[in-house]
Structure formats: structure tokens, C-alpha cells
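Margin note from the TA: students keep mixing up input and output lines. Inputs are the sequences; the output is the structure of the whole complex. Example:
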Amino acid sequence: MEAVFLQLLNGLDKGGAYALIALGLTLIFGTLGVVNFAHGALFMLGSFCAVSLQKVLSMSMKVRDESVTFFEAYKEVPYLEIWFGDAGKALIDWTVPLALLITIPIMLGVGYVMERGLIQRFYKRTHAEQILVTFGLAIVLQELVKAYFGANPIPTPAPEIVSGSAHVGAWFGLSDAIVYPWWRLIYFLFAFAVVGAVFAFLQLTTFGMVVRAGMADRETVGLIGIDIDKKFTTVFGLAAVVTGLAGVMYTPVLPPDYHIGMEFLVLSFVVVVVGGMGSLPGAVAAGFLLGILQSFASMTEIKSILPGIDQIIIYLVAVIILLVRPRGLLGREGVMED
Amino acid sequence: MINVNQTGSKTLVDMKVNRRSFMKGTAVAAAGVAAPSFFTRNAWGADFVNNPGNNKSITLGFNVPQTGAYADEGADELRAYKLAVKHLNGEGDGGMLNTMKPLSLKGNGVLGKKVEFVTGDTQTKSDAARSSAKRMIEKDGALMITGGSSSGVAIAVQSLCQEAGVIFMAGLTHSNDTTGKDKRRYGFRHFFNAYMSGVALGPVLKEELGIDRRAYHLTADYTWGWTQEESIKNTTEGLGWETVATVKTPVGAGDFSQYITPVLNSGADVLILNHYGKDMINSLTQSIQFGLKDKQVNGKQFEIIVPLFSRLMAQGAGDNIKGILGTTGWNWALQDAGSQAFVKSFGQEYGFPPSQAAHTCYCQTLLYANACEVAGTFYPPEMIKALEGFEFDGMGNGPTLYRAEDHQCFKNVLVVRGNQNPSSQFDLLEIVKEVPREVVTYDAKIFGGELGPYKV
Amino acid sequence: MNMKDNILVLIFGAVILTMPLWAGIVGAGYPDLLQKFAIFGLFAIGFNILFGFTGYLSFGHAAFLGIGSYTAMWSFKLLTMNAIPAVLFATAVSGLFALAIGFVALRRSGIYFSILTLAFAQMCYNMAYSVLTPITNGETGLTLTATDPRILDAATTEGLPSTELFGMGLSGYNGFYFCAIILIIGFYISVRLYRSSFGLMLLAVKSNQNRMKYTGLNTKPYLLSAFVISGMYAGLAGALMVVIDPLAGAERMQWTASGEVVLMTILGGVGTLLGPFIGAIVIKYFENIFSAFNDAVLNQVFGFLPDFIQGIWVSFASLFVGKGWHLTLGVLFMLIVIFLPGGAMEGFRRIAAKFKKEKEAHSAGGAE
């Protein structure tokens, strides 16, 4: 019972992350009709916003390290620490939450440049060509990051205060053994908030209305004199921001390296097709479904019956869904059903 | 000098990796003769692959991961190799050449020939590593191949080198199989292995954690993970510990949370992470986020053990490494003359101390060169005989034996703990115990395998 | 199949077979790289039969490559070291897998097809890496051992046997010629397919599948045949990989390996006969030669420049060569997709057309 509760909690946590990661991808597809293989690279760039901020905040003065006696070594003392003492230390400690703030403008800019500079040329090209050019872009972006930051993962921890775990079991009157990391709970809530905000934005604002109309029938909206192209640039920027934020928030869970995007790319595509290409609620539902299934498939009890199931469950679900319900769980009828 | 038959070079058919098939295959002789560059350069008439003959220099092939997950480890290995080449050629401060005993090297290259090198990228993939090793043998005329930062890669390249008749000096590889069931006559390993990790850890675990413990294993689902799980399990069960579960996790899983949650209420009070590299960084970081390190189970403090540590991994895991027990092949804080000479020389060159990967690669290069010098030739069978059973000292870890039966080095193994209060930025691992070589020595027969012939 | 095609195949064959003679000029004249040219050329030519002819973009073709390798290895381990059975079995088994996967995946088209193939390939890869270890030997890779049964050639020599073709060893240049001959046959078949009514049908599917359906024609069997044929090419390429180097690792099945063959096909020119092969050569050349460039080499190359400029140039250029060769590849690939969707082949055509025009303009001018 407790084991099931824990796996369920874990599934919800994973699901929230999957939904958030896939949200931007489905948004871009739904509005712009572009299959973006550079989505993972956006996630990676988001993570490296946090890494860069950490680098900037902990910019250091080189001080001769007296403790190393074999050779001349220098240790690095962050300027913030020298200037502000404990307050400076605290600032460095809060890198990841602070990174959220700088990520929004940066990713907006990245999205803008990407859309204006590249994606825009590919609206009228085939999906295959879109996949190819964005795949190329993903390679370029990740290699640039590697050239600067190196290939190894860079730890970017959460603030000290939330680095431990919460006694979730006690909250529900269950065993005390049930604990869950604070940061993962925060991630879950954050995912919920961002997904909610995106929904509200599209449902409640005039901008959102135009975009939704554009999704349904681009030409007509263009005909009535609305500059839909400009709106779409904004949507692309929005998707880049959402994906980047997902990346920032994920850094304490998984120290990022240049390749982290490629690992999430396949996953986010699977989430999107299971949910239905271009469907926002679909991506959320599919995220949770896959998260929970994956969590349960990893239980020893399940694995002893179906060995290896934890390795393939996600792909298996995708294949089955695509075969029995091509438009995905919540995809609109007629959209990419073929 | 082994008889160098220059006249044969023009008539020989082609340059190839496998000597035996070369003897058989003469069908394409005509085309082969026409292929220009090799023959003039490599004097292929002599008795072995890439015989330097009368050349003024020899070429060594450094095959390390330059891209992919282990790129930083590979970069450190490459630094060590370059340093070793410098020292062999009599440049720099000489490093371990000043401390190694017995020493036949003279600081004028090897057998009077200047040492040069080529590099290749293994990408931490067996395919790519073999292909890059082949390039170095076939195109660049490498006399010896060394490197690798994964057991899979090392084993794959080692067997290639055996077929090619080229010496392979393994870099960082920790699987029992490298000098066990997959051992080869042309392959040598200086690094320690999973079995030794288990033996070395045993007494420390008993002392620190007692004999009444319940262990839970998370194991990378491939050969190295399994051998390590087996070795550690044998050790801990020998102490009287109970093994609650052994769970295989996919390599490169990234998020290990679904494997960690079941640990929470399993009743286990020790978690053993048989992961390496990026997987280890992730699984350790996440285990600690799940509060495992602060947990009390069965009235005891919960403990996490990472049987194979490296300082580069410790950097990746940041603060999470503090207080975690494990083993390592070598650490820069060792106080013996050899280690100090090496650290000094490396630190002066690059501004930070070498990792265990750098150490083993540096030693391997020197050991190869020294064996050639002892044998008086580069001819592999003679060089192999010179290194088999070679007993030396002054290269860190105390007196060391290159055992003839399986080409495994036996030396002291370090049990380490993530440093709680590092005195410097590099001081990440604290040496808990230096387990003497006699304790970790085992019977060569237990892992089986065949070394194969001297002449291929 | 007209005269022109015959000449094309003949020239192609001649160029391939004489490769060891001239590839040395560009530093590629050693067996391992030449073998790779032939094998990945074959893989890309086969991939082109699906993607180039029908427009169906598979992101899972590396799975067939892996299946081919494992099958060939088991043929070496269980039956004989002769390469012929290994190649035949590998082609057949990967064909069977392609039939099963294609049958399912071709129920969808477009992006869904891509995702389905990707999902199947990832399942194969993950299983090969973990639960199927008894068959695949997981991360270490499947290798020959002295204790293999090898029922057809019992009299084995001391140590490990090597692959052979009726007594002729297959490593080094022999291996290259073996691969090269299979490559030429594969190229010939692909040319024949392209010109056949079957090929026409595939091209028709590519240009407008709906119209084909309206005419009452069931396109599925054609597509499935193309999928199976291209899967068999991949399996054959996988078998050749273990013929020249008897080790089968799971990494060659990963989706990024499938991505690589896509890159090759696009770079050279998708849908053209020669393009994919050219793309394969370019990428393998980059991977093996370009990646070995280091700062020392660069300093040599730019040595004529003043020191200050040299330093800047070298650090800039080193972004793109050596371990940064992926970056060059990515940039090149993007440029091709954006400006030259027909790949290198279209580039050649454009240059040729320009020359022709200039010539015409010239002669026209002369006549005046």
C-alpha cells in the first residue's frame, strides 16, 4: 500500500515534469504547424541559463591556495562572498529560483531569433524538412554549449532550505517512511502553475483568442486583417520560455550537460503524440499517464513478471495509442489524423 | 633490435590488422601494392605490425573519449599522456622517472627513439573506439594503443589489439572481465577492479557500519554493473549483511526517482549504487534529495555506498558526495614520493592535480616504455615477457606487481570517503584506509579466460 | 535501365574499386575508413530507397543495422566463419523484422510514421542493452570466443578465428573489396529499382499519395516492399560491419545512429541515386579525419600568419575541427536544408547548369 502510494506520488511528479516539457512542443505544433526537433535544445538552453547565472554569481577572485603544497594552486573565492559576506552566499544559494527571472527574457529573445531567422522560412515546407532543419539546429546549439561549458554535467543545486525532503507520509497519516524531496514537490506545483497560466492566457485574452483562431484557420484570420505572423512569433517565444523554465527548474534534479536536450526530445515527442499533436490538454493528460505508467513499470514486482518493461513502456504506449487512436488521447478530430 | 627486414617491404601485400588473414589473403595483392603511403613509411617487411625499423621516432596511439559523457575524464587522460611523452623524451622535470624502480628508461625516448603520439576519440562507444584504434594502427602506424574510460570500450579495443598484434595498455576500466574472462595476451591493466573494491571495502564497512545491515543495490544494467554488484554482494554477505533487493536500472536513465522510491520503505538501511559516471552523479544526487542520507532505519543511520569513486565524478556530484564511502585506484593526496612527483609535475603543467584516470594512464605509458627498454626491442612478444611478472615501486600505491597470469596489476587500493571539510577545492576525497596489496590479491583462476598466444 | 544508367553503374564501380589507389591523397587511404565508406554508403543507399523514393522519413533504421550485426555474429558463432551465410542470414532476418515493424508503422504516415519507427528502434536498443543481454552481450558487445560451437568449420586454429571468404581473410583491403563489391551490387539494384515501374509507383506515392488512392490503388504493398528492401540493405550493412570487425554493439541501434543516416542522405541529396553515398563519405571522412585535427595541426596550417592573428584563428577554427567536428556537421547540414534541399547533388547540378549557360552565352555571343 505504501509502496503503491509512493510510486503514485512519483508518477505524478514525473507526469508534471513530462507535461511541462512537452507543453511548448505541442504549442508550437498546434499554432505554427511546425515539428520542432530543436525543442530539446530549448530545454537545454534553459538549463544553461541557470548554469550561466551560477557562473556569473560565483565569479571569483583567484586566491593562492596555501593548502596545496605540491604546486602553485589557486582557489576561487566568489566576489559576492567577499563583498557581501553571508548575503552574497545566500544569493549564490538561490541561483536556480533567480535564474527563472533571467530565463524569461533570454528565452523570449532566443525564441524570437529562432522564429524570425529560421522557423519562419519553413512554415510552407514539409514536416520532414522542418524536422531536418531543426535537428541540425539542435546539433549546432548543443555543440556550442559543449564548446563553452565542457561535456560533463554541472551541478546546480536547489537552495539549501528546500534541498531536503518533506514528510508527505505524515501529512496523510501514512507511514513516516514516506518522504518526498521538496524540490520535486515544488517542480510539480510549478508545472501546474505554468500549465494553468498558459491555458488562461490562451482562453481569456484577446491575443489568445486570435491565436486559437489562427490555429483553426490561419488564412481566414489573415484575411480579416490581423497580422497573424507577428502573433505567431510571440507564440514561439512563449513556447521557448515555457520550455526554458522547465529546463531551469529541472537542473537541481538532474545536473545538466550539453546533451540533456536530446534525451528529453524523444520523450517529449512521445508525450505529444500520445496526447494528440497540437492538443494542450492532451499533452498534460499524456504526461501524467506516461509518468505514472513508467513509475509503476519500474517496480520490482512488475518487472519480475514482465522483465524489461520499464525500459520500453513509454514507447510501447506510444505505439499502441498511435495504432488504435491516431489522433492521440485528446487530439482534435481531423488534425493530423493520417 | 629485432631483425628489420627492409627489403621485404615492397613485396608485401597490404597493411592490415589481422596478421593471420593477411597470410591467407593474397587475392588483391596488385591493388594493395599500389596503395601508396604505408609501405614506404612503415617498413612492413619486418616481423611485427608497425615496426619502427630505422625510424627516428615511434608513435603511440592515445584513444580516449573526447566527446560524450566521459569527455572530461578523457581530457584528463590525454593530459597525463602528453605529460608522460614529455618525460619519456627527457623534457620537463621527469615526473615519476625520478622515483620509479627499477628503471631502465634513460630520458632519451624509448630505445633511443623519440616518442610521438596520435589521438583518437572513442566517444565511449565500442564501435567508435575500435574504429579509431584501427585508424591509429593502419593509418598512423601506432605501435601501442592505450586509453579508454569504460570497461566495454576497453574490452572491445583489447580484443582488437590482440588480433592486430599491437599492445594495448588499458586506461580506466574497472570490470573484472578486462583481466578476467576477456583477458588478452596483448592487453595490460594497471587500474584495479570491482573484485578488489569489494575486498577492500569489506573490513571498512564492518568497522564503520557493523555486521547487522540490510543492503539495497541499484545496479547499472550492463556487464560492469553486474560484476561489481556480485563482488560487493559477496563481500557484504560475507560480513553477515542481508541483501534486500538488487535492482537493475537502465544506463543513462537520467531520472532515477522511480527506482529510489521503493528503497524508502523497503526496510533497507544501506543503499549501494553500482553506477558510474553520469549515472552515478544522478542517482547519488537524487538519493540524497530523497533524504536517504538523513534517514534512520532499524534504529541505524542510513548509509549510501558508491563502490567506485573518481574525483571527477565527485566534482559532478558537488556537495552530495560528502560522507559517502567508496574505493578509488589512486588519489593525489597520497604522500609517497612517486605520487608527489607526479602531482607536482602535473599540477605545474596544468594548474590542478591529476585524477585517478590520469594517474593510471601516465603509469601505463611509462610501464610500456620501460618494458620495451628492458626487452631491448619493440617486438611485442618480447616486450610482453618483460612486463609479465614485473615488480616495481615508486609509481604510487606502494610496491606493485604486474601479474603474469592475467596481466592485472596488484597494488594498494584506497578506501575513501567524500570529504566533509575539504581543506582545498581539490580535496574532495579523504583516504580512510590504504588496503595493502596482499589483501586484495586473488587467485587468477577465479575469473577464467585465456590470454592467448604471444605471436599472432 | 538505359545506356546512361549502365555507364553510371560502371563508372561508380570503377571509382569504388580504385579507391585504395587515390584515397590516400586526401588522407583517407587506409582500410578501416574505406570499409566504412562502403558500408555506410550501402546503408544510406538503402535508406534512400525508403526516404528518397517514397518520402517516408524513418528515424529507426539503425535498429535493422543492429539486427543485421547480431544475426551475422551468431552465424559466425554457431555456423561458420565464412561471410556468405552471415550476410545472407543477416539480410533475411532484418528483412523479417522490417516486415513486422513496417507492417505496423506504415499504418500511419508523415510525422507519426517517423515517431513509430523511432519508438520501435528505441525499444530494440533498450532491450538489446538490458534484458536481451544473453543474445546481445549488452554494453560490451557480442564478440567471438574460442569456445563457440561453429558446427561447419570444426577445425579451428589456435586463438580466435577470423572472418573469411572460402579461405580468404576478410580484414584489411580484402574486407574493403568484399564490401565494395556488395556496395556496387546494392547500387545497381537501387538504380534498377529507381527505373522500374515499382520505382515509379513509389515516386508517385511521394508526390501525391491521395491521388494514388483515389485511383483505387492500394499503395501499402508498395510502401511495405520499399520499407522491407531498405531494412534489408540496413541489415546487410550491419552484417558487413561485423564481417570486417567481428563485434556487435548496441550503440549502433540508438536513435542518434538513425539520425546519422538521415544526415548522410540529406547532405548528399535525398532521392538521387548517388547522393546518399556521397553524404555517407562526407560524414565518415569528417568523423575520422577532421576529428583528428588538433591545435598542433591548426597551428601548422595557419603558421604563415602573424602570431597574434594565428592565435585567434586557431582558437576560432578549433571550434569546428577536432572534437568540434559535430558543430561543422550541424552547420553544414542546416545550410544544406535551408539553401540546397537537394543536397550536394543539387549543388553539382546547379554548378553544371551555370557552366552550361555561360558556355551557351559565350558561344551565342561568339556567333553574333
